[in-house]
């Protein structure tokens, strides 16, 4: 991985400086903090309740198996809700004005089976910097099973990925628990990324091991000890929880970047991306369902991915009004603003692109002349 990739453009544009001024002016005019407020506090309580209330109801042993299965499904909604609406903001430093609160809730990922440190390196450092760049944005790395970039190697099994990919998406959170974090911490240590984050590699490995042991203790051992259920009955509930969470999380993030409208730029021979960073975010990112307030509330405003990628240090509760500023400014500079009207249409677009990427030579860029023109400038 080339960590010295630069964003350059032969034609300079004042798009982002002007947009930045307009966004800053919005907060001054409304006397608002760019971080979270009381709405975020309430949401945090609700998301943790979605996870822990069903858990303790199950542990009580007071409910029949069918009800426990439904409670496990609700826990899956809670995992996704914590990840999207609490942990995500906390690890971007936007949940609160207080750094210690962000650190505390950032570790909520460890509570639900993942690891905050490896997530921050993958997401904050690699994904947000090198969005949709093959072999640099690790969100595009699904191994050889799913091809998410037109620049990734093509294998015969990809011809059917638009059929099987959605089933595999449900395994995302389970991979956190089992192996993903161990692979990533090893990789980041070798790449020097752990040191660049001023973290101690041994400490981070220790945190991964300890928190996963605690997760297994309360999520696996305790139910099997306290409940009168068989191992396979437990496994059904456990898998239901993770499949629910994994599918939701995957669909939210895949529909933000791996859809028909977005581009997958390549690094040129000089080690550069031929565009300014902010415009790169516009052409590689897409919004969906901006008018659906309930969905936006649950997914932590991540249906406003364009705004999030341009302003990752601003809390998601502000994205709705900011989206109008971004959209208008993009239009003023004749830049694309990708925006699917509904979540379902965004999912369909992702499915169509998966099918296209499953072909040996996908023609994924031919229908986006405006975005291509922007990349050529």
TrEMBL record:
Residues 68-340 form the Fatty acid desaturase domain. CDD domains: Delta6-FADS-like. The keyword Calcium does not apply. It comes from the Bacteria. The keyword Transmembrane applies. One of its GO terms (biological process) is lipid biosynthetic process. InterPro entries: FA_desaturase_dom, Fatty_acid_desaturase. The chain crosses the membrane at residues 40-63, 69-88, 100-119, 163-183, 203-225, 231-253. GO terms for cellular component: membrane. GO terms for molecular function: oxidoreductase activity, acting on paired donors, with oxidation of a pair of donors resulting in the reduction of molecular oxygen to two molecules of water. Keywords: Membrane, Transmembrane, Transmembrane helix. This is Linoleoyl-CoA desaturase. It comes from Catalinimonas alkaloidigena.
């Amino acid at each position: 991985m080339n960590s010295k990739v630069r964003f350059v453009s032969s034609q300079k544009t004042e798009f982002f400086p002007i947009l930045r001024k307009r966004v800053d002016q919005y907060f001054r005019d409304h006397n608002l903090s760019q971080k979270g407020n009381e709405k975020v506090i309430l949401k945090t309580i609700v998301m943790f309740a979605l996870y822990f209330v069903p858990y303790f109801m199950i542990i009580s042993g007071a409910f029949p198996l069918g009800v426990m299965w439904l409670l496990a499904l609700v826990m899956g909604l809670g995992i996704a809700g914590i990840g999207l609406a609490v942990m995500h903001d906390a690890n971007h430093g936007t949940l609160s004005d207080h750094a210690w609160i962000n650190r505390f809730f950032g570790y909520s990922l460890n509570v639900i089976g993942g690891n905050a440190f490896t997530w921050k390196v993958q997401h904050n450092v690699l994904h947000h910097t090198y969005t949709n760049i093959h072999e640099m944005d690790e969100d595009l790395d699904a191994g050889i099973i799913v091809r998410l970039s037109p620049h990734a190697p093509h294998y015969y099994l990809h011809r059917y990925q638009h059929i099987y990919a959605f089933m595999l998406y449900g395994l995302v959170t389970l991979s956190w628990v089992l192996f993903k974090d161990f692979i990533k911490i090893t990789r980041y240590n070798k790449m020097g990324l752990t040191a660049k984050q001023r973290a101690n590699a041994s400490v981070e490995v220790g945190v991964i091991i300890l928190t996963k042991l605690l997760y297994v203790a309360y999520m696996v051992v305790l139910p099997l000890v306290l409940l009168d259920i068989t191992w396979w009955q437990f496994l059904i509930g456990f898998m239901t929880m993770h499949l629910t969470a994994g599918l939701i999380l995957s669909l939210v993030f895949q529909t933000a970047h791996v859809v028909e409208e977005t581009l997958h730029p390549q690094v040129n021979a000089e080690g550069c991306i031929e565009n300014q960073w902010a415009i790169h975010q516009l052409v590689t990112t897409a919004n969906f369902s901006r008018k659906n307030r309930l969905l936006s509330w649950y997914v932590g405003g991540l249906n406003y991915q364009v705004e999030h990628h341009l302003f990752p240090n601003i809390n998601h509760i502000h994205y709705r009004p900011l989206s109008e500023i971004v959209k208008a400014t993009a239009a003023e500079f004749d830049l694309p603003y990708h925006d699917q009207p509904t979540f379902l249409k965004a999912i369909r677009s992702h499915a169509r692109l998966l099918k296209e990427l499953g072909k040996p030579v996908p023609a994924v860029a031919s229908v986006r002349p405006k975005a291509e023109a922007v990349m050529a400038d």
